Automatic annotation (TrEMBL):
Residues 1-20 form the signal peptide. It catalyses: ATP + protein L-histidine = ADP + protein N-phospho-L-histidine. The chain crosses the membrane at residues 51-77, 84-102, 108-132. InterPro entries: HATPase_C_sf, HATPase_dom, Sensor_HK_TwoCompSys, Sig_transdc_His_kin_sub3_dim/P. One of its GO terms (molecular function) is kinase activity. Residues 163-224 form the Signal transduction histidine kinase subgroup 3 dimerisation and phosphoacceptor domain. Residues 269-358 form the Histidine kinase/HSP90-like ATPase domain. It comes from Leucobacter chromiireducens subsp. solipictus. This is histidine kinase. Keywords: ATP-binding, Kinase, Membrane, Nucleotide-binding, Phosphoprotein, Signal, Transferase, Transmembrane, Transmembrane helix, Two-component regulatory system. Its EC number is 2.7.13.3.
Length: 367
């Protein structure tokens, strides 16, 4: 972990002040004052590094301010990079350091003078330029990475939209067409057969086909629009829709529901979908069976049971994927509940939904 800026400033001020304090031993008061002024310039290195460089020049000429000059030149280079201001500062520090050594009490060899002045002027500038270049490169890489992530997200979103539209086309071309034909055939059957029971059955089939087409069209709209525009959700079922669902199923169903009036809407929807799926499964896999739907609640949980008796006739060979039960399980898990399903000892089938009564009102779940 890098030290804090305040700690760095304190350390640099301590070192430059200690260097300036050397002049108190055998230098004039003016030289000491100029050296301490150069040390104080360290405080300005982050805001006005050019001023900090200027403050070190008198100290280099008449006092002792080598470290302060190195710090000031580095600060200017790291913030301005290669620039005219930096070149001027390097030249000034080089000249001031060279003149200060020539006029000092202990002049060095000319080669050593030039080498020393160049080292304290050019070396910090080069290091500062490297640091500024590195920061610009890191910033550029960060921006490029962000652009790349954005492009990848856009490509993924475009792929999802393409898949949605392809799926919508397939569903429309296959499912919608076949269900429409079923509705037309059922309508024709309804007006052509003399048997009242057959006409009623044809009417029911036609109404179910129409309702399925409406739900399918809503689903196709969701698939095609996706995230590009807001979608007004269709009205979702609740407990008030259960009597119509049971009546439309045309199955022998006995209902005994003891649920609170304050049951959250997501929980009501889960109850409706569980009953709907159970009635569909009973019609498919247990023809002729009777069904009981019971629900009761305690202080913290509610329990819904849908049980059908053993089938009285051979089940039709209808396709089944098990996705209905999987969807019920996922729906219950979102609400903090569980779904259990399996055969009963009598040879029937039972589905049990358990949900908490509290904390599900704001749950996010599919319709």
């Amino acid at each position: 972990m890098s030290p804090s800026p305040r700690l760095c400033t304190a350390l640099l001020l301590l070192v430059t002040t200690a260097e300036a304090a050397v002049t108190l031993v055998d230098s004039t008061p003016l030289a000491s004052a100029l050296s301490f002024l150069a040390a104080a310039g360290v405080l300005l290195r982050t805001r006005v590094p050019g001023v900090a460089v200027v403050l070190t020049l008198p100290g280099l000429l008449f006092g002792c301010a080598t470290i302060a000059a190195v710090v000031a030149v580095y600060a200017l280079a790291s913030r301005r990079g290669a620039s005219a201001a930096l070149a001027t500062a390097v030249a000034g520090v080089f000249a001031a350091g060279l003149i200060g050594q020539l006029t000092g009490p202990y002049p060095l060899h000319p080669v050593a003078l030039v080498t020393t002045a160049a080292m304290f002027a050019i070396a910090p500038a080069a290091v500062g330029i490297l640091g500024a270049t590195r920061r610009r490169l890191v910033q550029s890489l960060t921006e490029l990475r962000a652009v790349h992530e954005e492009q990848r997200a856009e490509a993924a979103a475009a792929a999802v939209r393409s898949e949605r539209e392809a799926l919508a086309r397939e569903m429309h071309d296959v499912v919608s067409h076949q269900v429409s034909l079923m509705a037309v055939q059922a309508g024709a059957l309804q007006v052509s057969v003399p048997d009242p029971a057959a006409r009623e059955g044809a009417r029911t089939i036609r109404e179910l086909c129409v309702a399925t087409l409406e739900e399918l069209r809503s689903m196709l709209l969701v698939l095609r629009v996706g995230e590009r525009a807001p979608i007004v959700p269709a009205p979702q079922p609740s407990l008030a829709d259960l009597p119509a669902l049971i009546a439309a199923s045309d199955l022998p169903v006995s209902v005994d529901l003891d649920l609170p009036d304050t049951l959250a809407i997501p929980a009501q929807r889960a109850v409706f979908r569980t009953v709907q799926e159970s009635l569909t499964n009973a019609r498919k896999h247990a023809p002729g069976s009777s069904i009981t739907v019971t629900a009761q609640h305690a202080d913290e949980t509610m329990e819904l049971r849908i049980r059908n008796t053993p089938p009285r006739a051979a089940a039709l060979a209808l396709p089944g994927s098990g996705l209905g039960l999987l969807g019920l399980t996922e729906r219950a898990q979102v609400l903090g509940g569980t779904v259990a399903a399996g055969a009963t000892p009598e040879g029937g089938y039972e589905t049990v939904l358990r949900l908490p009564l509290h904390g599900v009102a704001d749950a996010r779940m599919p319709a």
